[in-house]
Amino acid sequence: MAPGGAGAAVAVWNDGAGVEPRLSPRPYLHPVRTRAGVVVTEVVPEDHRHHLGVGVAVPDVSGTSFWGGRTFTPDRGSVMLDNHGRQSSRGPVAGPGGVWVEEVSWTGPGRGELLREERRWRVRGLDGSAWVLDLECTLRNTGGRDLSIGSPATNGRPGAGYGGLFWRAPIGPSAPRVLGPEGVRGEEGLHGSRAGWLALEGDAGGPWTLLFHQPGGHTDPWFVRAREYPGVGPALAWEERLPLPAGGELTRCLRTAVVDGHPGDLDALAAAVVALP
């Protein structure tokens, strides 16, 4: 994938078919690079082997894990269960305006298809040192029964409401800086917030900045990690399970500016990103 459908590729799509079953196989983008070639994603890292670049991962769909790894349970804590699902895709199809569309089937262990997803990737240039990726997913309940989306937080682990669109960034010599609007800084200030945007500034492989925004009217709480590992994503089930009735659907979008270096004026960058149609 390249900005505007031309020029050097800045993101590589993977079908995830060869991913270990306990990591919940799924399609993802990796490597994703800045215009200067700095890699800003990580895949199967030693700290969390179920983290796969940029994609959609949900830890609990009525008991099935599409996140991978261990499942947090109210009585036993985090344990490895035989509950891992799989996302399968034949690959994205290029369309006009730098949009790629793929259909993804979410199947549970021995239960057939639970969800059918339309995933849309849009790649655009921003300026000479930055480009923008829109990742939009529409999940439809095709399993014939009511479902709900949960997280470790909804099972009793405070602050662990992760799950949904997720970006795993690489580990550098130091933890990335977490920045937000109105001078808000740090993981503590932005984790769980509904800030209009947030940014990671890192130095793994060279200086880079990732600025995240949720277009489309949804402002889910931000799940942010920096010290333990660098990762960001809007949380679908921060404190309460999210119902998805039979035949129902939901849509979410994550917009990310991928920037070389550390811009001096993040507010100006955010304004440009938010203003994109």
TrEMBL record:
InterPro entries: DUF6807. It comes from the Bacteria. This is PmoA family protein.
